Automatic annotation (TrEMBL):
InterPro entries: Dimeric_a/b-barrel, YCII. Residues 34-99 form the YCII-related domain. It comes from the Bacteria. SUPFAM superfamilies: Dimeric alpha+beta barrel (SSF54909). This is YCII-related domain-containing protein. It holds the Pfam family YCII. Belongs to the YciI family. It comes from Nocardioides islandensis.
């Protein structure tokens, strides 16, 4: 089955009290529990924002250069995600809709490319 990421940016979440945020978190976790029961749930996590960024890394030739915190030019910060293994795009859309309604902010759905698509066929002996 295809794997999907349902995700949101931190900037898409409205300002709300800790009480309201806690309730929305409980509602989101309830949807994740439903996805587990349906056999599509793989992983989820939320609560990410600029403060959770450990570092950025950029290539300089053959070297990796690390800097603390998020990439300076970034205006949006990843907020959270759920990874699911759903049979169709329509199923992934359904679960994304359930999450969006439960937490009260927008979600994006991405289908991961087929892992085998980029693998080379084994070389045949000559």
């Amino acid at each position: 089955m295809p794997e999907y990421m349902i995700a949101f940016n931190d900037e898409w979440t409205p300002d709300m009290s800790d009480e309201v945020l806690g309730e929305r978190g409980r509602r989101g976790r309830a949807v994740c529990a439903e996805m587990e029961e349906a056999g599509v749930f793989i992983f989820s996590h939320g609560g990410l924002d600029a403060s959770t960024a450990i570092c950025s890394v950029v290539p300089e030739g053959e070297e990796a250069v690390f800097t603390d915190g998020p990439f300076v030019e970034t205006k949006e910060h990843f907020g959270g995600l759920a990874i699911i293994d759903a049979p169709t795009d329509e199923d992934a859309r359904y679960w994304a809709g359930r999450i969006a309604v439960a937490v009260g902010w927008p979600q994006e759905v991405h289908r991961f490319p087929d892992r085998n698509r980029h693998r080379r066929a084994p070389e045949q002996p000559q």
